[in-house]
Amino acid sequence: MTTLRIENLHVAVSGKEILKGVNLTVKTGEMHAIMGPNGTGKSTLSQTIMGHPAYEITAGHIYLDAQDLSDLPVDARARAGLFLAMQYPSEIQGVTNAEFMLAAINARRPEDQQMGIMAFIEQLDEKREFLGMTEEMADRYLNAGFSGGEKKRNEILQMMMIQPKIAILDEIDSGLDIDALKVVSRGVNHMRSKDFGTLMITHYQRLLDYIVPDYVHVMMGGKIVKTGDAALAQKLEAEGYAGLRDELGLDIVLTDEDADQYVEVAHD
């Protein structure tokens, strides 16, 4: 079993505190969802877990099993078994999807266990067909010219090929039509196993109709304020975040300000 453990995490962006004491544990074999209004720090959490340099940890720690990740670069975290499906995947000219995935797979393997090209192609074809992706997508430059839905499918294909221990899925439902959402959800559900854990970040119940989580966490004001099962997401859909805020007696103003800050940093 692999465990991602976040303890009392405080994070600032450009000197402004966004996360204000997040505590969370995700184990392989579990599916977690984080919900919350815009500006509450959900995407900040995902970027911080993966080590984006613009996000400064001012207090607290991030552990993968006994290893403290807080000072490790992004590539070291990926090699340790973390994976981030980004809300806005980058486009990289000159590197094909197939080249990127094979390099990522072998970066996590010792030299005497490198995946060969024939085994790679066989697995790639199997998973590509499972997601309804065309053969030519493997030879296209990474995300270059892809539609929003193609980028999200491609992120799931990468996850299925790389086989991380813990995957963070940052709003993979954003901008998807219902058919694309079903395909993406099918890929995530296919990964369910005792050796794989997921942290899904979303605004909406819609995603959780297709990927039923074991735990739902609600973030407000830079903290996790409530945890429950899938029924909690249904309650939020019916009553909204303001209703939960008032129920918990929280002195929080729901605003888009922090979300705008995130988008600005993520595109720098």
Polypeptide structure, described:
This protein is α/β, with parallel strands linked by helices. It has a single domain, classed as 3-Layer(aba) Sandwich (Rossmann fold), CATH 3.40.50. 39% of the residues lie in helices and 27% in strands. It has helices at residues 42-50, 74-80, 97-107, 117-130, 148-162, 178-190, 205-210, 230-248, 257-266; strands at residues 3-13, 16-27, 31-35, 55-64, 67-68, 82-85, 92-96, 141-142, 166-170, 197-201, 215-220, 223-228. The strands form three sheets. A six-stranded mixed sheet has the order 6-9-10-3-11-12, with helices on both faces. A four-stranded antiparallel sheet has the order 2-1-4-5. It has a two-stranded antiparallel ribbon with strand order 7-8. Helix 3 runs parallel beside helix 5 (148-162). The longest helix is centred in the C-terminal third of the chain and has 19 residues, at 230-248. Residues 257-268 have low confidence and may be disordered. Residues 4-246 form the ABC transporter domain. Belongs to the ABC transporter superfamily. Ycf16 family. It holds the Pfam family ABC_tran.
